[in-house]
Write a structure and sequence with these properties.
The complex is a heterodimer of chains A (about 325) and B (about 375). The longest helix of chain A has 16 residues. In chain A, a hairpin with a 2-residue loop joins β4 and β5. Chain A is built from ten helices and 14 strands. Chain A has about 325 residues and is of the alpha/beta class. Chain B is an alpha/beta fold and about 375 residues long. Helix content of chain B is about 65%, strand content about 5%. Chain B has a four-stranded mixed beta sheet with strand order 2-1-3-4, with helices on both faces. In chain B, α1 packs across α2, α2 packs antiparallel against α7 and α11 packs parallel to α15. Classes of the chains: A alpha/beta (about 325), B alpha/beta (about 375). Chains A and B meet through α2 of A and α1 and α9 of B.
Chain lengths: ~325, ~375
């Protein structure tokens, strides 16, 4: 991912942003900055405060304490100036199922005050971008998940917002459609749009310029994927391809608990196993021996670059 | 306030309605269908009330009297009883609503001008039919007594003209046949025209339930613009009904429309605005369509039925209920529909009610906009 020259003024700045519902703290004093023209990923498990944060940035919810600035303007009671300059795609599919593709786009265009001539041009562009030509008159409910997400994105950017907020845009969408959706996001970023996106897909997080990991309302890691990996990962990742991966994880965890091998993490990755420790290579022989005892062939072992998923799991545990 | 925003919402709302044929039919014709159903179900012209007679006199006079009593369509002779026990059994079984017991001295006293000794027993569990029977028996008895008196006077050789009996003439204005339907239907129209309020409450709750409201809130559309845009299509639907309902009442039920139609139309528009504001309040507070429906029945239809004076006179309500009735647009509108339909009265009399409806509409819209925060918390 190349670094692009960024506008010195950040797109979003959150200062000690906090939201409490009764005695439950959904967002707990978070600080972050989103630069202009980047894809900023907001990662976290369900219920970690991602949607609440987005709603505060859009002025749909008032923060309990702290504040947030979007495009240089503080989001408070008067959002009339900010609204036309930002776009939003909420977590649930939020277009009208009973209306057609064209009717939905026309409605959102009009909602953002576009006049008819502008609207027709933008709709053509949006249909072209989302690959929805020829489906203008299809009812939205008859579209598949991937198409619907792309339509929702098209509707959210019809008015050419400078910043868009996407709340888990690809949840429940097949991998190929997710790929197509991210290609659209890259196109937008190439045009200078700032993208704030929440997700819990780790592979998507790798595609962001910068990230924040959020857990129980707090940011636990923040920076570019490379920075986060470097800062947060205590140790190296050794990838094993044992004959029985599940059993290998159990065996190694037992050995770790018994104090025979000082490993930090042992995680199953499909048919592979990732073990994490500082200078993990030193333990290669001990691991092989331990698995041998349990009747498992250790197979190939190689030192790999940690994935964000490794980092995320490591972060969540500490 | 931007007309472009309001128009965007209104047009979208019309699309939702038109898109689905069943919604369209429901929204357009429910008031007429309700009017038809309720007019038939609630027609209060009572007919054929069953009564029994126990005749202890068994004279020609008493037989003539019995025949006169059951000559009309109002009372029906269910049985000639032979004992009080039999009458009691029939009353207990609910076979009769009233019983007439004729004294053994009936003919003698009547011809001797000493009165008409008889007794009427009614089923007090159904005061409506029972009271009706008493009234009609009394009315027929009076007729019978007058007739008998006249016959005797003439038999004595006096001319009728020389007598100057008390001459009480009751004249019923506006509804000469005293047909209860002519009074009922304008009242019912005021009630069924509240239906669009339900539709708007449901439409708003639908947006919230399906998450589209959150998306709408993130657009530059203001909350007042959103609420107004939502109301406009239902006001139009309501106004179509303002034309359809009186036309239907005149064609089907032959209810006369003696007033000024443009005035009726204008006042109905104010009523619709007030009712839809109530619907909007319900839609603002309720998160699901099911809850909105339940609250609509509680706030719009039940009070519309019981408190607006269509069936139960407001003057006879307790103080608290009377105050509540004043807060319902339907109370004022019922006076307007009844006033314009039959007596054909004008704005010179109806203006206070029109003002009240407008005030209520503005107050309700204000409350709705106040609580309809652009916040989702």
């Amino acid at each position: 991912m190349t670094t692009r020259p960024t506008n010195p003024m950040p797109a979003i700045v959150a200062h000690d942003l906090t939201k409490r519902f009764g005695d439950f703290t959904a967002v707990d004093g978070i600080n972050f900055e989103v630069r202009r023209g980047e894809i900023f990923g907001f990662l976290g498990p369900n219920g970690s405060g991602k949607t609440t944060t987005i709603r505060m940035m859009l002025g749909l919810l008032a923060p309990t304490t702290g504040s947030v600035e979007v495009l240089g303007m503080t989001v408070d009671g008067d959002t009339a100036k900010i609204r036309p300059r930002v776009g939003y795609m909420s977590q649930r599919f939020s277009l009208y199922n009973d209306l057609t593709v064209l009717q939905n786009l026309r409605f959102y265009g009009a909602a953002y005050g576009l006049n008819n001539a502008e609207l027709e041009i933008r709709i053509r562009e949006a249909l072209d971008m989302a690959g929805l030509e020829g489906r203008e008159n299809a009812r939205t409910k008859d579209l598949s998940g991937g198409w619907r997400q792309r339509l929702a994105l098209s509707a959210a950017i019809l008015h050419r917002p400078e910043t868009i907020f996407l709340d888990e845009p690809t949840a429940g969408v097949d991998p190929i459609s997710r790929r197509a959706f991210w290609d659209l996001l890259y196109k937008l970023v190439a045009e200078g749009v700032t993208v704030f996106v929440t997700t819990h897909y780790m592979d998507e997080a790798e595609h962001c310029h910068r990230l924040a990991f959020i857990q129980r309302g707090r940011i636990i890691a923040y920076g570019s994927p490379a920075e986060i990996k470097e800062r947060m990962m205590r140790g190296q990742v050794l990838e094993l391809a044992p004959s029985n991966a599940a059993k290998a994880v159990k065996t190694l965890r037992a050995a770790q608990q018994a104090g025979r091998i000082p490993l930090e993490e042992i995680e199953l990755y499909g048919s592979l196993v990732h073990v994490v420790a500082p200078q993990v290579k030193k333990h290669q022989r001990a691991i092989r021996a331990e698995l041998q005892k349990a009747g498992i062939h250790a197979g190939q072992m190689s030192l790999i670059e940690p994935s964000l998923e490794d980092v995320f799991i490591a972060c969540m545990k500490h | 306030m931007s007309w472009r925003h309001i128009w965007a919402i209104a047009r979208k709302e019309v699309r939702h309605i038109v898109r689905d044929r069943s919604t369209l039919i429901l929204v357009l014709f429910t008031p007429t269908a309700l009017l038809l159903l309720m007019a038939y179900a609630l027609t209060v012209d009572i007919k054929h009330v069953p009564i029994a007679v126990l005749d202890y006199d068994r004279s020609a006079t008493s037989r003539a009297f019995i025949q006169q009593i059951t000559a009309g369509e109002d009372l029906e002779l269910y049985a000639q009883a032979s004992s009080m026990a039999e009458i009691e059994a029939m009353l207990m079984q609910g076979e009769i609503k009233a019983a007439l017991v004729i004294d053994p001295n009936f003919a003698r006293d009547l011809l001797g001008m000493r009165g008409m000794p008889m007794q009427v027993i009614i089923d007090g569990t159904e005061p409506g039919s029972g009271g009706f029977a008493v009234d009609h028996i009394a009315w027929r008895a009076e007729e019978f007594a007058n007739q008998s008196l006249t016959n005797q006077i003439q038999a004595m050789g006096f001319s009728l003209e020389s007598l100057q009996p008390l001459d009480l003439r009751v004249r019923t204005w506006y509804n000469p046949g005293l047909k209860s339907r002519n009074d009922l239907i304008p009242g019912l129209i005021s009630m069924v025209l509240g239906m669009p309020a339900l539709s708007v409450a449901l439409a708003l709750a639908h947006e919230r339930e399906h998450g589209t409201l959150e998306q709408l809130m993130a657009t530059p559309i203001g909350r007042a613009e959103l609420l107004l845009g939502k109301m406009i299509p239902y006001i139009i639907v309501g106004l179509l009904n303002v034309i359809m309902l009186p036309a239907f009442a005149m064609a089907w039920f032959h209810v006369p429309f003696n007033g000024n139609f443009p005035l009726f139309f204008a006042l109905s528009a104010i009523f619709l605005f007030a009712m839809l504001s109530m619907g909007i309040i319900i839609g603002v507070f309720m998160r699901t369509q099911a809850a909105a429906l339940a609250l609509s029945f509680l706030l719009i239809f039940y009070p519309g039925f019981f408190l607006t004076g269509i069936f139960f006179p407001i003057a006879s309500m307790p103080e608290a209920m009377r105050m509540e009735a004043l807060g319902l647009p339907g109370t004022h509108y019922a006076i307007i529909t009844r006033g314009i339909f039959l007596p054909g009265i004008g704005l010179d009399i109806l203006w206070p009610y029109a003002v009240m409806m407008a005030v209520l509409g503005l107050a309700y819209t204000g409350v709705a906009a106040l609580f309809f925060r652009k916040k989702l918390g």
